[in-house]
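Request: Could I get any protein with tokenized structure?
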Amino acid sequence: MPAPAILLISTLDTKARETLYLKDAIEAIGARPILMDLSMGTPDARIPPADIPAAEVAKAGGSAIEAIRASRERAKITTTMIEGAKKLAKEAAEKGEIQGVIGLGGSTGSLMATEVMRALPFGLAKLMVSSTAALPGLSTRYIGKGDIALFHTVIEIAGLSALLKQALDRAARAICAMAQVPPPESRRDEGQIVVALTMLGPCEHCASAVRKRLEVGGCQAIGFSAAGISDAAMEDMVRQGLFDAVIDLAPGGVGEALWKGMRASGPHRMEAAGDMGIPQVIAPCSANFMTPRKSQYKPEYYERRKVDLDKHRTWIRISPEEMEAVAKAFAEKLNKAKGPVRVVIPNKGWSAVDREGSPAYDPEEDAIFTNLLKKELKKDIIVREVDANLEDPSFADAVVKAFWEIMKK
């Protein structure tokens, strides 16, 4: 493979020596570093200019570097520089001009660089070298729903000590090796159907059965844990064109977004497949439960039927009124779909935790959702009811049958 081009994101006003050392280390391995400077201050005039200087980043963000440096509105100018960097990085990625990106920084630098990384396609090598990677709460903010690797330097990125040089040398080798991996599009067999499949512990047997049946049929099924992050990332990857169809067994994040539950996956959950016009099959696992943070419980929540999945997660049965709200949200999203849609609903519980005999089992309340959804959906969207629990083999069969029906359209 030709030498990869690595976008190096840093701030030359605060970390020039360390950044230039990392740049040289990448170059020494045989890759081609492209330095992007996100400085909001004025670097030392003796420092060699970046390949993409801060002035160019500021311009791409709709401002001028002089205005950035003169401003006292730190949040505003930080956003401007991030937006400019995202625009330039996305353009480079779309043109195939970069095969990897590496960031270097402390808290602010890491937040800025990783926000740029999250705007780039899945599969492009991304490595954040940070002295704050292990701080509580920051690592999840750095990664978000991006495929970003964190390299914790442990020591501060300040001064070229022997320990820091060794860490930067390791980071340089890591990103160069990562950038040698071909893009995900190259891994697809010719003519193979690639399917995005949401799954969750309480519908694990169904998801496994569906995946195996699809693989027998020649498909490649890619699973996503529908806990709020991976399923939101799935939406982005669908828009990236990585999938031919979606089987959404666990779209509970749609309802969770209405009441800010722990599995909320953003306002655009269950929209990407419809926008891209690819086939989708929808099942309702977990849509009849909510998972609010216990610190945000309303008094009435303590009186509701609930299921403890473990000591950290409790599912609370939603009310009939909330069932109607979720049904309307589903209908609003699915009615906009440009491609074929099938909805498959079990009549004997929507997961392993609300089977017959469970305190959470309530097919009459589930029917509130089903009946309203059928009423609200467009006539060409078929809703198929199955006399089974979602985890029963017969339900997996019905999902796969619905999938092949719409794939033939």
